[in-house]
Amino acid sequence: MNILPCSFYNRPTLTVARELLGKRLVRVEDNIRVAGIIVETEAYVGEGDLACHAKAGKTPRTRIMYGEAGKAYVYFNYGLHWMLNAVTEREGFPAAVLILAIRPVEGLEIIASRRGKQPKAKWTDGPAKLAQALSIDKSFNGVDLCTRENDLWIERGESIENKRVIMGPRVGLYSVPEPWKSKPWRFWVK
DNA sequence: AGCACGATTAACT
DNA sequence: GTTAATCGTGCTC
To answer: Which CATH number characterizes residue A48's domain?
Structure first.
């Protein structure tokens, strides 16, 4: 079985964010695989991280992040967009890894049908773009990513050497105070 | 019940 | 570089 087990996610969030690079995000629609290699992630770590939604504590929205590692946390933003996260760390500690970008490798026709108005390089190079390309919305909030049952999981993929990995500040955190705004908790493949 | 704002995107100039 | 699109969430009254 190539699917990453829940134990993969039940570790420090920064470690999971780094190791998700090169893994294969898989979505199954009508028995057709739509998938891509993860090339960019960000870590959101606990109530103390003022960039993390869990800064507001346990609410209906953040409830999933307090649950078991290996669940999907999907939320709606800017009144338009869905974002996919993987919940990390032990139950009770709210943390997750946001999947920011993938490189499409399977189901290219389906992706093109949803993203074809844009050039290929921009099909899945943002969190809301890949959610649209893989048809991920609120119905996936809270689903288990560690099984084949929910038509959404993450598999082993490519090995990414450290020298190909760049770390930098997370994006889009306009009103987040320092030092959280500048924490180098974004990881991407060169 | 009302309000300000957001882990973005695409289409502008 | 700037900006509209668009609504759920969490906070205040």
So the answer is: 3.10.300.10
| CA atoms of A87 and A137, how far apart (whole Å) | 16
CB A6 within 8 A of CB A69: yes
Residue A166 lies in a domain: yes
The predicted pLDDT at position A116 comes to 86
CA-based nearest residue to A61, from A80, A41, A83: A83
Residue nearest the C1' of B6 (CA based): A78
- Output the distance from A85 CA to C12 C1' rounded to whole Å: 30
Residue numbers in chain A where pLDDT is lower than 50: none
- Integer distance in angstroms from CA A63 to C1' C9? 13
| pTM of the predicted structure, to 2 decimals | 0.96
Q: Specify the number of domains making up chain A.
A: 1
Residues A62 and A75: their CA atoms lie apart, in Å, by 9
Its domain, for residue A49, covers 6-189
Residue A1 lies in a domain: no
* Residue A138, pLDDT score: 97
- How far is Cα A152 from Cα A16, in angstroms, rounded to an integer? 18
Instruction: Please give the pLDDT value at position A118.
Output: 94
Q: Where are the alpha helices (DSSP H) in A64-183?
A: 108-115, 127-133
